[in-house]
Queue: 2 jobs
Job 1
Amino acid sequence: MDDHWSTWQAEQAGTNRAPSAGAALALFAVAALVLLALLAAPWSPTASGGSGADSPVCVELGRLERHGVSHGPSWARVEQLCREANGGR
């Protein structure tokens, strides 16, 4: 071993290249809190005050229309649900 300083001595002297154990734990805690905050945030456009145009039913309506379906009972029901998701617009 070519390094004659122990890890503790290197940390105390400020010559250690790796982060300290406390810094690594603090970084992990901050990352965990950010992850929890992101997972707990509302993701629904209508719950966050959005228009609802990105709701799953409106996405399905767009998919149907891209495939040439613009009439019939299934399309009419999906269109009605999308209008309701958009607040009747």
Job 2
Amino acid sequence: MKSLLEQIQSRCKHFNGLPHGTERDSKRCNAGVCYYDLMRVQELGGLGCALRMPCTGREPGTVVRGQTVVACEHRAFPSEAEVQAEIDEHERLVQTLKAGKSPCCSADIDTRHVIQEGQHKNHGLRFYSECKRVVFMV
């Protein structure tokens, strides 16, 4: 498995997540490229289409589990400063969560929905107390 540094360095700086659900045929990267069109889903089908993405560090032309990685003219990698900024932000998020705080609003994590007793004790949703986003579920 690649380290966090290797993952960030090899990922296209325009990549903003895999398309899924209702956005799957219209989601665009930060450079404006439609993932659905890039992966040639209409032509090659949807099965294994994410393996054709050059966004996550695979070299165009490489064959991964029977799928050939496509080329993208907008593919660009982050600078050393951008990589360091993302690593610093990741570390800040980890430390904030370890402290039991929300990384987006610095509020305490609300654990009122966590099961307090029985077989499933300590399982359940954790919410941020101010923005009400789900932190994680155990």
